[in-house]
Amino acid sequence: MVLSMTAVHRHPVGRWLIWSLFFVGSLLPLGWITLQAVQQKLGADPAQVIVTFLGIWALRYLWVTLAVTPLRRLFGMGWLQRYRRMLGLYALFYASLHLLAVATFILGWRPDLLLRELTERPYIIVGFTAWVLLLPLGITSTQGWQRRLGKRWKTLHWLIYPIALLVLLHFAWLIRAGYLEVLIYTLILAFLLGYRLYLKGR
Amino acid sequence: MLIRKAPDIAPSEITPESIYRQRRQFIKGLAAGSALLMSGPAAALSGSAREDEGLRATGPEWLQKKLEAATASTEFSTAEKLTPFEHVTSYNNFYEFGLGKSDPKAYAQGLRTDPWSVEVSGAVHKPGRYHLEDLLKGVDLEERIYRLRCVEAWSMVIPWVGFPLASLLKRFEPTGSSRYVAFTTLHDPEQMPGQRSRFGTIDWPYVEGLRMDEAMHPLTILAVGVYGSALPSQNGAPLRLVVPWKYGFKSIKSIVRIHLAEQMPPTSWNRTAPQEYGFYANVNPAVDHPRWSQSTERRLPSSLFSPNIIDTQPFNGYSEQVAHLYSGMDLNKWY
Predict the structure, then answer these.
(1) What does the record give as cofactor (chain B) (predicted)?
(2) Residue A184: closest CA among chain B residues belongs to which residue?
């Protein structure tokens, strides 16, 4: 007999196990890149490798968070809902590390460079804006805040859609040649957002 | 286009291994000795830089001999700290082999660089298809330690081995009407996986060009080696251009055609994104790339917690030698 995830979730041990799996599993990318950096396996420009890696994982976690609703509705994976907050917080986690890595490894916290990048580079302004908007969503992701904000909580968290579009723009704006990767993420996001429009219009 | 014959027999396989080794040892000694005498810029030809012998590209025997006879150019070389061989040969932009920096090293190893021929055409009295070996006959190689500034705002210091492009062009006797030199990289999707991709933005083959006075400038060289050995494929074997005062993409790799032209030739990056990449592409901290700043650069290899950020110099620090070529030109317009 196949043990369904729904069945696993009926048991507290099952719930704890899956939670731990999500939690620890989500730290694996960070663990991997840290190990590579410590072992000096990232080549001539480890800074760029780390920054790109953290950025792409932030994007992936954002996309996965947005995939929870469609997966729930299309495949009856209701149990996933329980982990949406964690996934969203990991998106914020990797986005914050991405930002820290840029400031530390690429710009060396030089005030003139930080100011220049934040005021003159459109793709950085767009990416930074996405992070600034994501921050309050992370802070208000607890049940306490959900209660306190009531109806306004949903309005605030609707921001995740423009944030995703900003992130995509930030990513696409960086490309010098070769659009395959960005094309794939665009198609996935188009589906994730399109599905919501479809649900709304029905 | 390419004359394909004689498969991949490395000269090291023809020469008995033991004799080959002895010869390398002997040369090592010589190189180390001469380095002591000359000191300074001969560093790359010296024994210490040859630690990773096993990773070196060997190249055909005739080329090895020429490389071993190369002299260090003190006049044109910088004394800055060299970017290690390992990084110079594993961190490359060579989109014919993929978009990632490590792709060229991973996918270029099968490139057949010997035999190799170059077509010389256009406004010259002696056009024709020349074997690389013939092109290099009578040419003395020299080591030039140049800064390389990528348009992506990172830079390296690389000991190339090559010869002035001017000396080669003169042999073909350009006619009075030749005003530009156009270069073409090998187009062979079978050998170059990047040329098979349908999602790239570059129209193959890769093309580049120089104005005649830029091409004839003594700093402009054609390189056949790096760090005292033959060029590895990922660095543009067997023949590449090096123009140190321009962004790296001007220094076209794996050249199969040199064409003397009367009109300004098209260049790949300019064709792909004309608002971002001009024909001249001189290193210029005052003119930003539309998407990022060019006022600073990170000298590689960079250490994580103290990124090697340095101010980018006009003409990549070669102003004294080349600024006069552009006097009277608006460099904001002719970027």
Answers:
(1) Mo-molybdopterin
(2) B199
